[in-house]
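Training component of the fellowship. As part of building independent skills, the fellow (R.M.) carried out the full modelling exercise for a liganded target. The chosen ligand was NDP. The inputs are recorded below so that the supervisory panel can assess the work.
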Amino acid sequence: MDDQSLRGTVALVTGASSGIGRATALALAARGAAVALTARRAELLRELAAEIHAAGGTALPLAADIADHEEAAEAVRFTVAELGRLDTLVNNAGLMLLGHVTQSATADWQRMVDINLTGLMHTTHAALPHLLEAAAQGPRRVADLVNISSVAGRHAFAGSAAYCATKFGVNAFSESVRQELARQHVRVCVVEPGSVDTELRTHNVPEVQQAIDQVLGAIERLRPEDVADAVAYAVTRPRHVALAEIQVRPTEQV
Ligand code: NDP
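Fellow's submitted model of the complex:
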């Protein structure tokens, strides 16, 4: 990787144990960032950190449940304590449990709100003082908050009411924060992937997974690296360029 434009910076990626978060951590590390990795599955984080170290990078595995707002804030504090600063936060951890409203367990809705929305908000709240400091005094004089939303944060779909509500919430929160921080050079970017081939769907019951496959049809889905590319592109723009919103779809996804 020739682009080392993130050298000297520190990034925290939530949900780094699999899928888009894992690929994003690798992409940022390949561009020179030291990366803090959070998720609940500590063993997977340790394996990823070892892979990054073996490639010459720096990585800090931090087991944390983002639904616990104290743990989310602690992950930010630990990142800064161990790696010295925070320039980039990628709020990626997420859960997607689909189903028609009448057939859904409201406890599933609450879990999604706790992880996708309020977990992201609390992590952001803990990180912002450090992002502001990085933007004011860091080597790049700019900092980045990237929130992984979804096409379901732009368009509502039957069978996805609660998930869409969390992602619409992510988009609204992100846009407000963007307006609040623009003048201080903290860029806020929402990334809205279409269908990506990850574990995300597998947390649903088999009938729901079949329904998802039927709606999508036999298309070639995105790979996690495709979304990681978009994140890496956004956070390596020159200081005066902010990408506020990126929608990445499989070419065939209508
Ligand atoms: P994965 O299921 O592969 O990854 C989800 C990640 O979130 C895992 O690392 C998981 O780690 C972590 N996570 C889940 N719950 C918690 C929690 N309570 N605390 C901490 N970490 C948690 O799915 P994707 O990579 O696909 O999903 C990443 C993001 O992309 C999500 O926000 C999702 O909504 C979004 N997205 C995905 C799309 C897709 O088609 N796949 C499309 C659009 C958006 P662990 O289990 O170890 O805690």
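The panel noted the following from the submitted structure. The first strand starts at residue 10 and ends at 14. The radius of gyration is 17 Å.
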